[in-house]
Amino acid sequence: MNDEPTQLAFPAPGERLAPHHANAETLALLSRRRSTVALAMNEPGPSAEQVDQLIAIASRVPDHGKLAPWRFIVFQGEARTRFGQTLGQVFKAKNPDASDEQVAFEAGRFERAPLVIAVISSVTENHKIPEWEQVLSSGAACQNLLIAASAMGFGAQWLTEWYAFDADVNAELGLGPSERIAGYLYVGSAEDEPVERVRPAARVDHW
Ligand SMILES: Cc1cc2nc3c(=O)[nH]c(=O)nc-3n(C[C@H](O)[C@H](O)[C@H](O)COP(=O)(O)O)c2cc1C
Known about the structure:
Distance between the termini: 45 Å
Bound molecules: flavin mononucleotide
CATH class of the domain at 35-75 and 111-190: Alpha Beta
Number of strands: 5
Oligomer: single chain
CATH superfamily of the domain at 35-75 and 111-190: NADH Oxidase
Radius of gyration: 18 Å
C-alpha cells in the first residue's frame, strides 16, 4: 500500500533547521526495513511528485566538498520497455547462444517494477576530495532513496545485476568515463510481506 503524496518542506539555503528529528517511526523503519524483491512489485508506483521527492531526498546526503557526485536516470512506463530492448540486445550480443526466453527475460527486467531509478556515481577526478568519499556519498544517496520509498509506503530494492557493470549498457545510458552505476533502485507497491533474514552479528571492537 502506498500513501497519498506527503507535503514535504524542503528547506531553503540558510534556513534554520532542527538539530535532530526525534521520531520513533523513523527508528521503527530503520530497525525493521527489508527490501522488497523487484519481482514482487506492482503498480501503482510513485507519482511524478513522489519521484521528485525521492530524488530530492536522495540528494540530501553528506557530501564532502559539495560536489554532488551523483545523478539520476528515471525509468517509468514505456521507457522501461525501450531500455529493456537495449538490455536484451546487449545481452544477446554477448551471449549469442542465449535462448529467446533468456533474451526476453533480460529485456523484461525493468518491467518488474513501475519505477526504476539508476543512481549514477559521478566522480570529479583529480580533486582534493578523494574518489572513495565521492563514491560513498552516492551509496548514501541510494540508501536515502530506499528509506524514503519505504516511508512513502512503497517496497524498494537496490540492485546492480550484470547491467550495472557492462560498458555497452553504460554507453547506452550516456555515462562518462568517471561515472559508474551505484545502483538501480526498483520501487513499487509491495505484493508480499517480506520475511526477516538472518543478519550476521555486527563486528564491533571497542578501542
Ligand atoms: C550495491 C548493492 C548491490 C546489490 N545488488 C544486488 C543484486 O544485483 N541482486 C540481489 O539479489 N541483491 C542485490 N543487493 C542486495 C539487496 O538490495 C538487499 O539488500 C538484500 O536482498 C538484503 O535485503 P535487505 O535489504 O532487506 O537486508 C545489492 C545490494 C547493494 C548494497
